[in-house]
Design a protein that fits this description.
Helices cover 33% and strands 18% of the residues. The protein has 5 helices and 5 strands. Helix 1 crosses helix 5. Strands 2-3-1-5-4 form a 5-stranded antiparallel β-sheet. The longest helix has 18 residues.
Amino acid sequence: MSNYIPTLRKEYRERIVPALQEHFGYKSVMQVPKLQKIVINQGLGRYSTSDKKIIEVAQDELTAITGQKAVVTYSKKDISNFKLRKGMPIGMMVTLRHDRMYEFLERLVRVVIPRIRDFRGLNSKLDGRGNYTLGVDEQIIFPEINIDSINKILGMNITFVTTAETDEEGYQLLKEFGLPFKNEANK
């Protein structure tokens, strides 16, 4: 098991680094941006206050999707309009790094995104620092989820954190990893 290297990690070293070096003219391999982590965040919204069982179900689903135990996130303050008290569970999150990050990205690009109905490409708007957040409307696009056992459709945000200095570098890195961005004239 110790000799195992995920396919995308190997591809990053052998194909993506030289391609980015050529595209941006980096003098050193250390200048090439890399993917630091992937953060998956799932807000439970109004369901978290009304149904306690949904928290356990959402945690199990996110754990199955990522292969790493999901952590419950709690509210930081009281909001009376939402019937929310400080310390109540409001969502789930998982931070993936290293091999698990590459394995998740490979499944996302090669299995999950092709399963999205009427898919026309991802929006190519990055955050200004080379990071990208992808919003997923339904957790049922992941093959790990059994559609028959679903009682609530929940969405999630998947954030790709890179070491890129600019949006152009981050965009090119994620595109090389295989994220299917929409073709836009300005990129």
